[in-house]
Amino acid sequence: MNMYSSVLRIVTICFLSLIAVSRAGAQNLDRPLGQILTDEGDRKESRMPGRFLTPRSIVADDQPFVSQSEVATLFRPDVGDTMSFNTPLLIFTGWRFREFTLMDTTGSFYLWIETAELSNGNVTQAAVDSFMTYLRDMTPPSSVDATQGIYDNTVQSFGALPDVDGDARLDILWYDIRDDYPSTDFFIESMALLEDVDPNAAAGTGNARDVVYVDTDPLFVGESFGLSDVGRATAAALQRLIHLGTDPDEESFVVAGLSDYSSVLNGYEGAGNVYLRFPGEHNIALFSWGGFLGDVQRASLFSLYLSEQLGLDAVADLVADTANGSAGVSNTVNIYGIGRQLEDVVIDFHTANALNRKDIDPRYGYDSGQQSAIGISPSFSLDASRTAELSAVMTTVAPGGVQYFMIENVFEPSVRVEAVNAADNDRVRGNLIGYRPSGNIDVQPLSGGSPTSMSGAFDEVIVVFSNVTTDTTSIAMVTSASWSGTAFPTTNVIYGDGTLATTGNNHVQLGPGFRQATFLPNPEGYRPVELQFSPFYRNQFVDTQTGDPFGSPDDPRDFILCIAEATSTGVPADDCLVELDLADPRPFERLVTSDPSIDYLSLDLLQFGDELDGSGDLFAVLSESGTDDNILVLSMSEYTQENVSYLFGNIGGVIDWYELWEISVGGVPLTDRYISMNAQFQDRPISTAVEPIPEGSSAGRIYQPYPNPFSEQATIDVDLDYPADLSIQIFDILGRSVATIADSVFPSGQHEFQFRPGHLSSGLYLYRVGVNGRFESGSMIYTK
Questions:
Q1: Do 668 and 641 have their domain in common?
Q2: Are both 666 and 539 inside the same structural domain?
Q3: 429 has a pLDDT exceeding 60
Q4: What CATH code is carried by the domain that includes residue 729?
């Protein structure tokens, strides 16, 4: 730099300063330059609100001029100065200048607060001081370095921030981002925008400065969130800005994942992993992006997994790599993966989400305490004690997507996953995760097209299989499984052949007050697993004399099922261990004598573990429900070995239990008959798990919450066609569970549940309703 140019630049700066002062008027002579340059009435071509003074507009093209970086260096604002910044409007439909006040500064950044937020009390000096502590001095204990603030942790982990204005300082704008929340379910926590760092940004956009935008309202300064969430959002925005400086074209999945991981790295809660509880979220292309919560959580979890597996240096290199999406991640894995490729990382990631046990294999788990409760919900499960095999099931798996299913109580399972196009089998990878009764866990690799077997007995085996190529097409796969038997000794109580008797007294209409029961002996130490039974009703029959049907097909078909222990006298106890008032879910059919087969109802008894644990011999008892005329009919099957069924009622003027073989109807004894009920018992611990409903069937209907939005309470209605394990959970936008309003077995019928947020903040909440392992979910908005 020669002397002439130096002198000229100084003179030019002074000249511009005088122009600004003269326009401001004499009353401004004692005000700081930063304030003078941002008064609403002073916006002229020679100055740009939201930026330090740029003299380009009044210096001739052939003269040396003062660069923006030099002006920014010479004119540093002081605490208390005000300045206008250009801020984006809702969903980036435009930009608008807002006034900010400088509240604190360091050698690395300025903290600007929207002046209006200071005036209305939304942001206090105490809040500013706390925010500065998070930014400059310390982070929560779980951060990468708790003795440093967010700024230093983030820059040291991900790389340097861009410095487009040359002042070597970041501008943090803390203000009310106008996102129209909560009148909509859309809100923004923080931003870093390309318009600020892009020299070719459209006119009227951005600030030509290094800026991050952080929201103050409505969530962050409310009762339930607080400043820790401001720290979390700021950490995410800083990483976004770093990435904009190195690779502005990076795919959203990578940027969003690393941004949320930046929050975790700084000791704050990440987006969570609740998406894994929704099977529909598993089989989605790994690097796809739709902006939904599931996408954010998948991206964040994958970034966390990469960091823990490859190290922080790998993350910094990924940010700096100009290759985008899976190509950039693949480059990073090739350098830091110690022999692993991206395809290996994909299946290891999906396995870690199901297992989370680094002590078994370092590839299959997380160090982060935030993932201690991670777990998947399988798409379906099979109980090997009830199902002979899994026939060929067709599935199309997205690039990088995954499928999970479970086999329970299985001995020596063998699983085969095969691509329909044999050439794709090298893209099919997976693992079998076997949980043994001893507590040991085995992991067996699975390859496309080849059967994978495990020896011995397992409480459950989780099958994980993936299309491990992330940049190609989906793969159609066929999955099948077989096994040698069940992991538990099983006893089946089956007296007959599953058909009704076709001669003699087969169907007897009972009067009100009668009960019918069948004896179900339980081997000592065994647990009830399943009950099969088949009530019959008056409207299923026709009058043999007139041929007219009894009743209407629309008559209610309901009954009470009681499971009671056997007394010492060999009859059912008066008290029920389990009592259910049920509506028959089977389609109505008239009884046809030419088809004696029985269409059984099946009840999973494992869900009643608390009630049936330790029970002895049992009776299944059917009786009337309600006062309608469509009463139960005694329909019997043949069984000649011994009496196993009983009737309770008024026979011969005495109300008591009677052996079926002791009773005669029309002078014909009911010997060699029994009321067809079957049961299964296993030598296994009681489990409250309920097998999911088979594909294509339904346990009932789940209705959307109402009203929505709501201010006091939201109601969720569920109609159950038969007894089911019902759970209803509520999560906040971060995936944290905030309420459980149902979690037990409910009888058939209509059920109504209320969610009352109470002390919770206004905002978007997610609900998840599960019926026998099948789930539906959605969102609702709470407005105070």
A1: yes
A2: yes
A3: yes
A4: 2.60.40.3080
Domain identity same for 708 and 678 = no
- Per the domain annotation, does 761 fall within a domain? yes
Decide if 319 contacts 258 (C-beta within 8 A): yes
Percent of the chain with pLDDT over 90: 45
Cα 672 to Cα 496, 512, 639, 640, distances in angstroms: 11, 25, 5, 4
Tally of CB atoms within 10 A around 750: 10
Q: Taking 50 as the threshold, does the pLDDT of residue 214 lie above it? A: yes
The answer on pLDDT for 386 being more than 90 is no
Whole-structure pTM value? 0.65
Taking the C-alpha atoms of residue 607 and residue 668, their distance in angstroms, rounded to an integer, is 41
Query: What is the rounded CA–CA span in Å between residue 404 and residue 280?
Result: 11
Tokens 């770093």 identify what position?
242
Q: Could you give the CA distance from residue 521 to residue 516 in angstroms, rounded to a whole number?
A: 17
Residue 40 has pLDDT above 80, yes or no: no
With helix as H, strand as E and coil as C, how does 496-532 read?
CCCECCCCCCCEEECCCCCEEEEEECCCCCCEEEEEE
Instruction: Give the domain extent around 547.
Output: 490-682
pLDDT, tens digit (0-9, with 9 covering 90-100), for 139-198: 999 999 999 999 999 999 999 999 998 889 999 999 988 765 554 445 678 899 999 999
Query: Mean pLDDT throughout 305-327?
Result: 95
Determine, yes or no, domain membership for 281: no
- The domain tally of the chain equals 3
Query: What is the chain's mean pLDDT, rounded?
Result: 81
Same domain, 432 and 464: yes
List, edge to edge, every strand of the sheet that includes 700-702: 700-702, 714-720, 749-755
Instruction: Report how far Cα 240 is from the mean position of its chain's Cα atoms.
Output: 25
- Across 434-456, average pLDDT: 92
Q: For residue 126, what are the contacts with CB-CB under 8 A and spacing of at least 6?
A: none
Q: What is the mean pLDDT of residues 715-724?
A: 82
CA nearest 675: which of 500, 490, 436, 487? 500
CB 630 within 8 A of CB 557: yes
Q: Which two tokens stand for residue 752?
A: 């109504």
Helix, strand and coil percent figures for the chain, each rounded to 5: 25, 30, 45
Whether residue 252 is contained in a domain is answered as: no
pLDDT at 291: 81
Q: Are 647 and 500 within one domain?
A: yes
Length of the chain, please? Answer: 784
Measured CA to CA, the distance from residue 219 to residue 227 in angstroms comes to: 10
Higher pLDDT, 223 or 108: 108
